[in-house]
């Protein structure tokens, strides 16, 4: 035998009646206690009037049954104690018969009227309560929930309102779509007591379609199944175990099921839209990467091939200086190519979530040195000036990746600014970061970057767009900086040249020795 | 000595080209931007321009247009693989030929030779009264609508003759389907590249040029009439 909780809407009806009867009896006792000592001094009309009160108390507290109990009790008490001859039910005078009769009529009529009022009030209350609950249910479906949250919410709400043993939401395993015979079902969410294996098996195998159309399922006693329908076709089932629903509650559950079905349908649609947008985004990113990578890889390749074929074709006509210049060019461009390939691989791995950052404590000037070493031969000595306070906190970074960021930014600055100009690298604590972020800036005397270009230089774009000065370098820098939780941007407040700024985390300060 | 203007924004490629072309015996002038290129064509009057399609300031197509406003200097475009649409555009804008990066010096030199040879040829009969075009062993008589190849007269229909005459007028240049259709078929045409395909096929038959040595196909782009390097090279048979 399972514990069955009565539904909340009907809960308390019997208690109310019993309470009403008790109230009526108590009233009778009180009236009797007051009037009995005064019996010789009061007219027989007074008890008749006062015995109306217990009946009224019964009606008000417990409804018409208690009212009738009160009225009969009053009738008997009046007759027995207050109509001569006393202490018998005999009524001697015809006058007293009239009094007794009038009492009975009055009390029954009054009780009837009060009981009707009471029922009307109860009805109104129940309607208000139902409306409120329905409103709450619908409200729960409007929120900006994702599909999984919504499913949980639906079963939780139903469980809270109808209090069955458990509530289960059964949906086709394949996702969105109408329930069809033979469709594989799954319990998408449940609330209340955990479902037994047998219950799950019973819900998900066979018969789903047939059952979905009826409210109750004959094979399982005390189980209510409601079809979640969008338009005319059911998309899922809401199953409540061990619950008895009275008529009004059924329609409440039905209305809720309709709304839940719509909400589920909508959530699933928006989830699908999100998924396809994400795929599109990945697709776009991939083709941008392919375009940018193919351009950036081909540029050094073109000069390598030209140089090598020159050496092969007209090598004998070349002076020693030209030969060594071509060979040096081949070496430098091969390095550039190798650096790009490494960058690209790291970037792809970052995007795929496969690259793990290995942050260590690195000093700012170590980082600059690392970047400049990787650019040896590309950036001449003395071209880069490094500035930073001596007490600058250490950086907490993956020095390989951030070294590449700095190298890419420097290479860009070098390529775009006059050969004899100076490139400035400055490090400082990022303002407002409370020493948790270090800001590194690279300034050059090049032509600068137009306002509308400032965002775009960090994007991978195909060279066909026309611009194509930044190539992949800054896009890679952005990915690496963002992998560190930092930011990279072009300083908008600069009059001449360009200034690229990026932030990286600082090493947490070591507590001073006590 | 040939004066070659090289335009590219990649300093490494400029350097490699400068050394390679100088060793070949050319005089090399360099430009890093499109604007510089246009100025240099006017000032240095090069015999040929090697122009990168993807320049930082002005697009290579626009540079070609600007140069064509005042100069007929042959323009050899350096393009990236996959740039088919832009190749067609730059050819339509007046470029003569293109090389896809990365390229070897041998390939570049071959293109340079073709461009220069035909420039000389076109230069030779640049007076408007030119009545006969000579492309290698091919002679096109514009007045009498007659063409001879290796001294033998060709039996051509009017349209075939128009096509041959058009290609001969632009010998050495890669002519796009679009250009050929507009000129030979008329302004109402432009996308019917299958017409051109059919007629070039017929022309090749009549020229005995089944392998397309004289009338070259540039896949996906158009056709190019090229006089062969040596007056009568042995043809590679067997294919």
Looking at this protein, list some descriptive labels.
heterodimer, A: 514 residues, alpha+beta, Beta-Lactamase, Helix Hairpins, 4 domains, 5-stranded mixed sheet, 4-stranded antiparallel sheet, 13 helices, disordered N terminus, B: 239 residues, alpha/beta, Rossmann fold, Arc Repressor Mutant, subunit A, 5-stranded parallel sheet, 41% helix, 20% strand, globular, disordered C terminus
CATH-assigned fold name of the largest domain in chain B? Rossmann fold
Multimer state? heterodimer
Most extensive chain interface and residues per partner:
A-B, 32 and 30 residues
How many β-strands of chain A, per DSSP? 11
Number of helices of chain A: 13
Helix content of chain B: 40-55%
**Proportion of residues in extended strands of chain A:** 5-15%
Provide the β-strand percentage band of chain B.
Answer: 15-25%
Shape of chain A: elongated
CATH level-1 class of the largest domain in chain A: Alpha Beta
Low-confidence stretches of chain A: 1-11, 207-217, 462-469
How many structural units, i.e. domains of chain B? 2
Class by SSE composition of chain B? alpha/beta
Distance between the termini of chain B: 38 Å
CATH architecture of the largest domain in chain A: 2-Layer Sandwich
Could you spell the SSE succession of chain B in H and E letters?
EHEHEHEHEHEEEEHEHHEE
Give the SSE order of chain A as H and E letters: HHHHHHEEHHEEHHEHEEHEEHEE
How many individual helices of chain B? Answer: 8
**Secondary-structure arrangement, i.e. CATH architecture of the largest domain in chain B:** 3-Layer(aba) Sandwich
Helix content of chain A: 40-55%
